[in-house]
Design a protein that fits this description.
By secondary structure, the protein is α/β, with parallel strands linked by helices. It has a 6-stranded mixed sheet with strand order 6-7-8-3-9-10, with helices on both faces. Helix 7 links the parallel strand 7 and strand 8. The longest helix has 18 residues. It is globular.
Length: 261
């Protein structure tokens, strides 16, 4: 069974699930984390945001989902200005974040963690059907459905976090460092899953990732974020051909992969 899109009526009806970010600023006290960031994700598109630690990548996603208020600029989703919306309303509009570090609740069972993802959905029968599809797609989760999520390996926890995100019936899923802490084999499995979900559902993805090589393999377009600013943007082939990106990111990523293989 494949994981197909839900047929339930959206809680927040949107004509298209495109995302537009214009001149976004984020501050933490005196720290100016994002400085005029502008980007967009078209419906059904995979967009990667690349950058080193401290570039502002997590601040960007936390602001897009509403966990961090914007200090300036505008965020539009599906043609609506959502800059002031709370996270719950963004999730009901099918904008979903899979956070860095998975953020699963380890004291709850695997099944309870999945059910948390469906809390905004009015059609519980559709959610139950989709959970069954997720268990078929991830048999390791199915075998541990009644166990505390703490028993899962890092890769299994990442699959659980993605499954929980799918239960919110996303039309645009944002993922913050999905390969963090995973082996090269598990990283390849996660990226294969993202490609499959995109192909099956037409799911739009905004992917924040330090593994530049893997991110550019599946992305339609990418942005490079440095010290809170977008310094480069384009198609993967264009970015791979840029000497500064290749030396700063691709060369390092390929060396790391070679050492791990």
């Amino acid at each position: 069974m494949s994981i197909e899109a839900s047929t339930e009526t959206p809680t927040e009806a949107l004509p298209e699930a495109g995302l537009e970010v214009h001149d976004l600023h984020v501050r933490y006290g005196r720290v100016h984390a994002l400085r005029g960031v502008s980007l967009n994700v078209k419906p059904g598109e995979i967009v990667a945001v690349l950058g080193a630690n401290g570039a502002g990548k997590s601040s960007l996603l936390n602001t897009l989902i509403g966990l961090q208020p914007a200090a300036g600029g505008r965020v539009s989703y599906g043609g609506a200005d959502i800059t002031g919306w709370p996270p719950s309303r963004r999730i009901r509009s099918h904008l979903v974040l899979v956070p860095e570090g998975r953020r699963i609740v380890t004291s709850l069972t695997v099944h309870e963690n999945l059910m948390m993802g469906a809390f905004t959905r009015p059609d519980r029968h559709a959610a139950t059907t989709e959970i069954a599809a997720i268990y078929e797609r991830f048999p390791h989760l199915a075998a541990r459905r009644h166990l505390a999520a703490a028993v899962l390996s890092g890769g299994e926890q990442q699959m659980l976090a993605i499954g929980r995100g799918l239960l919110a019936a996303p039309r645009l899923m944002m993922l913050d460092e999905p390969s963090l802490g995973l082996s090269p084999r598990l990283t390849s499995e996660v990226f294969a899953l993202l490609r499959e979900l995109h192909r099956q559902r037409g799911l739009a993805l905004l992917l924040v990732e330090q593994n530049t090589h893997k991110a550019l393999e599946i992305a339609d377009r990418a942005y490079v974020l440095e010290l809170g600013r977008i310094v480069m943007a384009g198609a993967p082939a264009q970015l791979r051909a840029d000497p500064s990106l290749r030396d700063a990111y691709l060369g390092g990523a390929e060396k790391c992969q070679g050492a791990a293989s």
